[in-house]
Specification:
The chain is α/β, with parallel strands linked by helices. It folds into 2 domains: 116 residues, Beta Barrel (Lyase, Ornithine Decarboxylase, Chain A, domain 1); 222 residues, TIM Barrel. It has 10 helices and 16 strands. Strand 2, helix 3 and strand 3 form a beta-alpha-beta unit. The longest helix has 24 residues.
Length: 370
């Protein structure tokens, strides 16, 4: 098998551009399903791709539950045919009303959201009384990340009791995202994950003792996906594994996923003997972390980023003389999720050739119709 990113037809694609190989996405979906022993346990996160075409691909593969971060992503899933979508966010501001309107527009769908605050939950419940629209709730339990959720078992029980006593709300289970477990060493990562899961087990035991057995637990991002898939019977919610990226490939080489997306850029200037300037600014590649950990450029793996601004990336490299102004370059983002959100569409690559097909990054906008 040849290099999947040696492709024809780049000359007619304006840069910077997002390129996507649907066949690799399909392979990654299949590997997700294989790891779980079937599609029933998967609730993949759509925040990585934000594309309704990818949701349809997953539904065709037998996946029937999804996880989203925005109301627009929830709507995208519903319009693509999904009938069970978790908004993995605590809805605030106008979001509760938008979620209720989506529930009204899709009465056959099962919509749920995260809750970690009784006052906010009560406010949503009061709105539901007026509309008579049912919504599910997953209690957001903080198993160590310290971002959202409550780490108080007492609070988990209290929120669950409120859900069960509130009209229009149904207790769907517990959400426990272990995004803080990122150790590159598999053994160390598993140990850290096990400790986090022990805290979840404690919360589940207290809920059962209080008369609230948990219908489902949603947990696990891509770094811990393999542990959840093999060692638990909970719902798994990986996101990055659909497209994969250089950051996760470097940190977690044991995971069986492949790069489905790349960014096309070009040399636009040669400002010095050992320098290249690319049309790859902050608006074209996710700009978190150190500059040298933003994109892995083919042929320029040892280049050093000396400047990064809105529209430009300046590299220092010994082999700059091998490149001419206008030369195309392909790179694998270190973090694919925020990179995808910078583009309105992805150009498809099939059989090592750029096609005239594009997939819209549907939920890039915060609002679709609701």
């Amino acid at each position: 098998m040849g290099d999947p990113w040696v492709i024809e037809g780049l000359a007619r694609i304006a840069s910077p551009a997002l390129l996507l190989q649907p066949c690799v996405v399909e392979q990654n979906v299949e590997r997700m399903i294989d790891l779980c022993g079937g599609a029933r346990r998967l609730r993949p996160h759509v925040k990585t791709h934000k594309m309704d075409e990818v949701v349809r691909m997953q539904i065709s593969a037998g996946i029937d539950k999804f996880k989203a971060s925005t109301i627009a992503e929830v709507e995208m899933c519903l319009t693509a045919g999904a009938r069970d979508v978790l908004l993995a966010y605590s809805p605030v501001g106008p979001s509760p009303d938008r979620l209720i309107r989506l529930a009204e527009a899709y009465p056959d769908a099962r919509l749920s959201f995260l809750a970690d605050d009784e006052a906010a939950l009560l406010a949503i419940s009061q709105r539901l009384v007026k509309t008579k629209v049912p919504l599910g709730v997953f209690v957001d339990f903080d198993c160590g990340m310290g971002r959202t959720g409550t780490s108080s078992v007492e609070a988990v029980v209290g929120i669950t009791k409120l859900i069960c006593s509130s009209a229009g709300l149904s207790f769907e289970g517990v959400h426990a995202y272990d995004g803080h477990v990122r150790e590159p060493n598999p053994a160390a990562r598993r140990e850290m994950w096990s400790q986090a899961m022990t805290t979840v087990d404690g919360a589940l035991a207290e809920l059962a003792a209080a008369g609230h057995p948990v219908p489902a637990v949603v947990g696990g991002g891509s770094p811990t996906f393999g542990f959840h898939a093999r060692l638990r019977e909970w719902q798994c919610s990986p996101g990055t594994s659909l497209f994969w990226d250089h950051g996760y490939e470097t940190a977690y080489p044991e995971l069986p996923f492949s790069h489905a997306a790349a960014v096309l850029t070009r040399v636009i200037s040669k400002p010095g003997t050992h320098r290249l300037c690319l049309d790859l600014g902050h608006k074209a590649i996710a700009s978190e972390g150190p500059p040298d950990r933003r994109i892995h450029l083919r042929g320029l793996e040892h280049a050093h980023v000396v400047g990064h601004s809105e529209e430009h990336m300046v590299l220092e490299c010994e082999n700059a003389d091998q490149y001419q102004v206008g030369d195309p370059l392909l790179g694998i983002p270190f973090h694919i999720c925020p990179t995808v959100a910078l583009y309105s569409e992805a150009t498809l690559v099939r059989n090592a050739k750029v096609t005239r097909e594009t997939w819209e990054v549907t939920a890039r906008n915060r609002t679709l119709t609701i």
